[in-house]
Amino acid sequence: MMHRTPKLRTLTLSVGSAALFALYLPVASADATEAAPLHAASQPPGPDTTVHITESYARLVARDAWFWAWPMVNIYNRRLAFERAPEPGLFGGVVPLAPVNRLSMLSDYIEPGQRWVACPNQDTVYGASILALDVSPAVVQVPDFGKRLGVYQFADIRTDNFARLGTMYGTKPGFYLVVGPKWNGTVPKDIAGVFRATSSTAFVVPRIFQEDTPEDRAAIQTLIRDVDVYPLAEYDGKMKRHDWRTLPMFPRPANAGAGEARWVRPEQFFDQLPAVLTDAPPLPGEEARYAQVLAVIAAARREPALKQAMIDEAQKADKEVVDPLLQFRNWGVPLPNYWRTVDNGARFGTDYFMRTAVARSNILVNAPNETRYYYQDLDASGARLDGAGAYTVTFAKGQLPPTRGFWSLTVYDEHHFFVPSALNRYSLGTRNKSMQYGSDGSLTLYLQPDSPGADKESNWLPVPKGAPFSLMLRNYWPDAGETAGAWTPPAIVKAQ
Predict the structure, then answer these.
(1) Predicted confidence band at 378 (pLDDT cuts at 50, 70, 90)?
(2) DUF1214 domain spans which residues (predicted)?
(3) How far is CA 9 from CA 2, 13, 16, 449, in A?
(4) Residue 67 phi/psi, 5° resolution?
């Protein structure tokens, strides 16, 4: 059979069709270079802030902004609270509070009655300082930790870390300087390091391990006396020392509730947001998001009804989208036995969901290489943990959390705060020296409202009687293998 080679057809174009066809041909490179700036110059810098917008659109933007900016406004309002402090002291007698660019330090574990920060630990002695770097750079004093684990968290207004300082980093004792994003001054002599914050507002939280013994409570005092934060103008190269046991106490508001203090309020949110966004310049790709919400806020200033609609939408979003994130089971990286964890803690960037989830449930977490967090609301069958029952968790021999620091298992009520206990015990772990191990080398902890018996009481972690509760397992300075996900906690087993 003969194969016929097809003939190429000649395409004939009229003048008009040739011109039309030319519209689809590549433009010469010289023309492209010339056209690009013209195209860019024709684009507006952002939304037109003078146009009338619909209520439904304003609600859409308001709902979205409430979610992704919630953690930033949370930190902003904590800064406002610190600005009102007359001197370093203890708010309500339990929470460290100080004027901005200064530190207040506890001298023991945090008291169970505090409600300023959800999911506090009972492993470390805390300090707290909010930096106003638009006012002044701040000097941070670091003591010699020796063999004791200590870590300072430096979080920007987004709750992302911007510095590394602590035992796991081999940090040397001395003076460190924290400066704002645009600071361009002279670094004084004998400053060991300079950290540049990514926002003008920043949180500094020292955490220093303490064993649960009278001897260690006394021993830690000579170390924490050298922990301090103060404005650069007060730096003189000499360690400033404090006996943190002598702090004044500030009264707690009488209307404080059972849950965390309310730091983000719909009726204030859109008035505060422009200042917050100025403090936290947009990350790459966020420019349009910032411009959009600021344009809608500008429109709401001209139309009170529009602003009220935005407030109403924020109230709905708070209840429908943000509040469910208090529950650990609603977010996080799923692990065996219903545990959850977070892989990008304090490094959220534009992961708005995880940033807001962590901020709502346990704000100001350390980075994963500093502290690994495991969250639990459910037992091995998937049922909600509840103090109407009794539970055990057993670590097989050699299967305790792999740590270079220490670990703990903490119980919280449904609001993520400590549960009143006759033992005054809220966690068990490395700091507890009286726990009993099985003959096979295993460790069983008893989670129940009433004592499991005198012979097991050293391993008893009290839970709220007849009420839901949650658990958090912390591993401070985890082994590299755990950071990579090679270890997960055992199941929480309900007693039959």
Answers:
(1) very high
(2) 371-479
(3) 21, 13, 20, 89
(4) -70, -55
- In this predicted model, what pLDDT tens digit does every residue of 262-302 receive, in sequence order? 999 999 999 999 999 999 999 999 999 999 999 999 999 99
Structure tokens that stand for 208 in this block: 């220093």
- In tens, the pLDDT along 46-70 reads 898 888 999 999 999 999 999 999 9
The pLDDT assigned to 35 comes to 53
pLDDT by residue (tens digit) across 210-223?
999 999 999 999 99
Is 288 part of a structural domain of the chain? no
- In-domain check, residue 106: yes
CB 489 within 8 A of CB 474: no
Query: 125 burial class (0-12, 13-18, 19+ CB within 10 angstroms)?
Result: buried
Q: Is residue 155 part of a domain?
A: yes
**489 and 349 in one domain?**
yes
- Domain boundary (225, 249, 273) is at 249
Domain match, 349 and 458 both: yes
User: Residue 361 belongs to what domain range?
Assistant: 328-494
> Which CATH number belongs to the domain containing residue 464 in this structure?
2.60.120.600
Whether 483 and 356 map to the same domain: the answer is yes
| Token digits of residue 384 | 């909600």
Q: Note the pLDDT of residue 39.
A: 56
- Structure confidence at residue 470 (pLDDT): 98
Give yes or no: residues 245 and 335 share one domain: no
Shared-domain flag, residues 242 and 354: no
Does one domain contain both 95 and 223? Answer: yes
**Assigned domain for 43 exists:** no
339 and 219 share one domain: no
178-222 residue pLDDT tens = 999 999 999 999 999 999 999 999 999 999 999 999 999 999 999
Domains in the chain, number: 2
pTM beyond 0.85: the answer is yes
CA distance 147 to 446: 31
Could you say which of 231, 249, 267 is where a domain stops? Answer: 249
Query: Is the separation of the CB atoms in 322 and 356 below 8 Å?
Result: yes
Residues 245, 107: contact at Cβ < 8 Å? yes
Question: Using CA atoms in the order 269, 272, 275, 279, what is the torsion angle rounded to 10 degrees?
Answer: -50
As a whole number of angstroms, the distance between CA 9 and CA 243 comes to 95
